[in-house]
Every structure is written in structure tokens, then in C-alpha cells.
Amino acid sequence: xxxxxxxxxxxxxxxxxxxxxxxxxxxxxxxxxxxxxxxxxxxxxxxxxxxxxxxxxxxxxxxxxxxxxxxxxxxxxxxxxxxxxxxxxxxxxxxxxxxxxxxxxxxxxxxxxxxxxxxxxxxxxxxxxxxxxxxxxxxxxxxxxxxxxxxxxxxxxxxxxxxxxxxxxxxxxxxxxxxxxxxxxxxxxxxxxxxxxxxxxxxxxxxxxxxxxxxxxxxxxxxxxxxxxxxxxxxxxxxxxxxxxxxxxxxxxxxxxxxxxxxxxxxxxxxxxxxxxxxxxxxxxxxxxxxxxxxxxxxxxxxxxxxxxxxxxxxxxxxxxxxxxxxxxxxxxxxxxxxxxxxxxxxxxxxxxxxxxxxxxxxxxxxxxxxxxxxxxxxxxxxxxxxxxxxxxxxxxxxxxxxxxxxxxxxxxxxxxxxxxxxxxxxxxxxxxxxxxxxxxxxxxxxxxxxxxxxxxxxxxxxxxxxxxxxxxxxxxxxxxxxxxxxxxxxxxxxxxxxxxxxxxxxxxxxxxxxxxxxxxxxxxxxxxxxxxxxxxxxxxxxxxxxxxxxxxxxxxxxxxxxxxxxxxxxxxxxxxxxxxxxxxxxxxxxxxxxxxxxxxxxxxxxx
Length: 608
Prior knowledge:
The chain is an all-alpha fold. It contains 23 helices and 3 strands.
């Protein structure tokens, strides 16, 4: 049955397909909750006992970053603005490849669960808690954002927004709470299959509706949608070759260092498998994102009214059934009356393909699968950070303050992680109601990640690639980078409707946000670290533990490190001894003052 606007209502087969997807996702959680006794340790619950294969981890890693943001956002981006954003695939190739050979070997070499434990080892607990809190803010907002996609799809069917949010939040919280990381990974694999099948089906059938491959390609070429190479370096251009490639390179690097990514890397059996996992995500992303970009071209070719202004503010033209011959006597297909630009694909599937039994159910399942995979991954990562970087350090501090000996209780912590997963699931569901009041998906996530991910990437870059970086320089760099991102983003939002911007920086493209905040963090961190070294003899005496540096900066042995330092500074002879402050010495996961370094003992000291 069709409504007045041409939308075809869900049929029995559609509901069966949709219900089956939710049921299988829920059963995955139940299975892993009882299989082999369930999740009895935090290692099992949070990192799948570090015993997962390369392909399922890569699939989970990839699909958790796709979500409904890509399913709806990328076709909308192409439909309105063209294929320029597809250049981001080059940036993904560069960014992921860089992290495979730099960041991954360092993190895999440390016995940690939360990536932000690195901050205590390299610097100080204050940086660890700062990084953890920034991540918590980012992932919480991200989970709320990913709920929009399914809600948009059901709004077209006349189903209230809040019902969809509750469905997504409930199912996702259920199977993630019960099954932990294994449930997340294997449900992601299933949901990835659903997404690929749905995307391919919509693209093939939609292209037939639009007149075939040749017609779609030629029509988009005629209207400039395939013109992607804009080499103008002006940063205020919405998109250019430089902003997309450089921006997506840094963005891919930034998403690799967040907890959701690292937990999958840690779940791999070995360093080689962890690197293979990350490399495998490159073809995954290229294939899947190209599917979504091509769907955008198909939509533009189908809604072929050349008189219609293609800007987000124009949300409707004429009803879809209006017949009006123009030009070559061809009857144009007018864009539907959508409430927001991201709904156009949903309307197309319902109006043009909804008569095919089960297809709407498959497409909506695709949106739900994307949302479920992203939220479940976020929940698992959020709980890991909250436990390892906030709760456990607080327990150690409390024990030390009261003069007691801290005794760990892994079974109790495993139960606590499940409770926290449930609580954070409810919180993200609540936030899902607030997010729709902000712009389109692509801009939303670029803004969020620019404010938080850029400075976090900067902190890890300073820690691993700049041995002279210290706590205060890096800490102030992160704070400055975050404040800069907030300033630019808030200013851009407040001034977006003004013809004249008071400051040109507010006009900078959203594609530069992550790179800008990363660069600000690096510059401030390096400058202040050098200033601190100038006034602090203690900082000048510290030598960073080689395990915390990039492989290319590590000496072959600790002895080599001592020799190199002696040769460089010409201050102490090799007769000195160095004690490496280990993880146990500094209390990893305890919240004690951190900063793993080699400590100089001035025995047998001989000045040159």
C-alpha cells in the first residue's frame, strides 16, 4: 500500500527480514554469553582473550566505522556536491598504511587493554585521564549520532523517531552486555554481510530505474558531478584535492589510535595478524565506500530535474507523481519531500523499489546493522576505558591513601564491565534523541572528530615520534588543540548564516578540522616541551624507554641507547648504569605518577 507521497508501506516479508536481522544479532550475544562458560575475565570480555583471527577482526573494525553515517551520508554528499569526497579513499590508503608500520608495533608491544595507559607510561597520569575523558566525550556523542540513520528510515514509514531509538539501543545494549568483544566482532561480521547485500541490491536495481550504467555516468559527467580534481589550495573551499586527501589521511590516523580500534588490534593473535587486520580494512573501505558513492550518482541521475537547485536548504520541489515534459520531452523525476537531505535514499528505496517484497526490510536492516555495529563497538571501548583509566586508578589511589594493600578481583571487574555496558547503553540511547538537531552526518562527524581525535593523535605522535616531548608540553598541547577546535567549530556554527564572517578561520572547510587540531597540538607540544627542558634539569636527565618509541627511533638494545646518549651529549661515560623503570615499578593501571623512562644512577660517574 502506498501513501500520498508515494512511500510504500512495510509488508509482511519486510518485517520478517528486519526482525530476523535483530534476532540474529541478539542470539549472537546470548551464544557468547554461555559458550564455554561465557566471559569470565576482563581479558575475555574486553579483548576476546587476544585470540581472534585476522578476517573477523578486520571485518568488525571496518563495519564499526561505516554505520548509517556512510550508508546515508555518503550518497547524500555525492547527490548534492559530487564525487570530490571519494578522493578520501587515497587518504585512507595513506593513513592506514602509516599507522600499520608506526603505531601498531608500539601498542602491541605493551601489555595494556586501554590505549590511554600509554600516556601514563610515557608521560604522566594527568595526560592519561585527559585523553580518556576526551575519548569518552567523543564516543558517547558518536553513538548518539549513529542512531539517526535507522530513525530516519522509519520516519519515512510514519513510525515515531523515539521508537526506533529505543529498538536500536535495547538490542545493541543487550547483546553487547551479554557477549562482550566476541559478540561484538561476530555480530559485526553478520551485519557487514547484510550491509553489502543491501548496498549492491539497491545500486543494481536503482541503476536500472535511472536508465542504466551509461546514462547514470553520462548524466553525472554532464552536470559536473565527476569533477573531483580541484587543486586550489584555498582552505575555505568546501572540498578540494588537498583538503580531502590530507584531511582523510590524518582522520584515518586519528581513528586508528582510539580505543575502539585498538581493542580489535589487541584482540589479534600476534603483531603480524594485527598489522594484516588493519591492511585488510583498506580494500574493505574502498569497495564499500565506492558502493555508497555510486549510489549517490545513481540518485542524481534518477532525480533528473535540471531546474532543481541541489542544495540542502531545498528540501522539496514537487510531489513525485507530477508529470511535466521539458526540453527533450522527457518526464523528469522530482526529488521527494524529505525533511532532511539524508532521507533521499530512504525515499528512493521506498517509492521506487518498495514494491519488491523484502527489499525495504533488507535496506532498513542495513541501516540498523550499521548503527548496531558502531554502537556495540563504542560501548565495549567505552567500558574498557572507564574501567582501566578511571575506576582501577581510583581504587589504587584509595588503597594507597588509606594505607591498605590493593587486591585485584578480576571476576568482580568482569561483572562490573557488564553493568557499565548496560548503563552506558542507556546513556547513548538517551543522547540519540538530541542529535537530530545538528547538520548532516558527514559534517557532524568531521566536527566531533576534529575537536577530540586530532589532539589525541597529537599526543600519541609526540609520545612516540618525539623523544624530547615531556608531560607539560604535551598536556598543554592537547588542551590548546582541543580549545582551538572548539573555538573554530562553535564560531563556524554561530556564523554560518552570516554573509560576512568576522574571522576568516570560521570559513575553513570541515575537512581540515582533524588535521588542524592535530597540527596545533604538535606545534604547541614541541615548543613547550623544549621550554620545559630549558628550565628543568630533571627533564633533561630523562631518557625514554625505547619500547614507547617508534621502531625506527629505537636502538638495537638498551646498551646501545646508553652509548648513543653518551656520544651525543658527551657528559657521562659508559661506566654509568641505567635502571629501566618497568611497568610494575610505575604501577600500570594504578593511576600513580607515570612516565616510563630509563633512570640514571650516578655510580662511577666520570665527567668528560
